[in-house]
Design a protein that fits this description.
The protein has about 210 residues and is an alpha/beta fold. It is about 50% helix and about 10% strand. Strands 1-2-3-4 form a four-stranded parallel sheet, with helices on both faces.
Length: about 210
């Protein structure tokens, strides 16, 4: 939520995966369904690849596993460092195109502002080299790909979701109408229904 204090030079994709797995260890969680949204989907997928025996299912919500290094992303990083307030305003409006999302825009803006320009830029830079496509076929757990149909954070957002569902074995793609990049927040009831169905089906398949 913007409050975790990690030295900027220690921010990395690998550190994110390590941190997530260490939280599970600390909570004594041996097996679970792992979920990630947006760029954090790459963290969830990498964890499932690293410890496949630990995860009974995978959920990706408007997530990416490749394609982070795009000109518009590098422009966004530069904007965070040089025109922080205006760049954040542009981003939160892009993430939440829904008409009833003003409260969510305030929430997201607050998180980014508390994170700060340099840390936010470093997080994005840590993702630039990620490309998990060569390993997606290794995933064996049932997977649910949820995607907001109004996502405009990249020109290829929907195409990427469709390709992700094709590359991951035993994956199902569900589109959420009238939802942007974070349907977990903007359309929680719909997402919760899909999650409940998926969890029930996953539980039935778990030995």
């Amino acid at each position: 939520m913007g409050e975790t204090k990690v030295p900027i030079d220690e921010i990395s994709h690998e550190r994110h995966v390590e941190t997530m797995l260490s939280v599970l260890d600390a909570q004594g969680i041996d097996r679970c369904v792992v979920a990630g949204d947006s760029a954090n989907a790459a963290v969830a997928i990498a964890a499932a690849l690293q410890q496949p025996e630990r995860f009974d299912g995978l959920v990706v919500v408007n997530g990416h596993a490749w394609g982070f290094d795009r000109p518009e992303v590098r422009q966004f990083i530069e904007g965070l460092r040089t025109q922080f307030s205006a760049t954040v305003d542009f981003f939160v409006n892009l993430v939440f195109p829904e008409e009833d999302s003003e409260h969510l825009k305030l929430w997201l803006r607050d998180i980014i502002e508390r994170t700060g320009a340099e840390a936010a830029a470093a997080i994005l830079e840590a993702n630039l080299a990620i490309d998990l496509r060569p390993r997606l076929a290794e995933l064996r757990a049932p997977s649910l790909i949820i995607h907001g149909a109004l996502d405009a954070t990249s020109r290829s957002a929907l195409d990427n979701a469709q390709q992700l569902a094709e590359l991951i074995p035993n994956a199902e793609l569900v589109l959420v109408d009238d939802a942007g990049h974070l349907p977990l927040l903007s359309r929680p009831e719909i997402v919760a229904d899909h999650l409940a169905s998926f969890m029930n089906a996953t539980q039935a398949q778990t030995p």
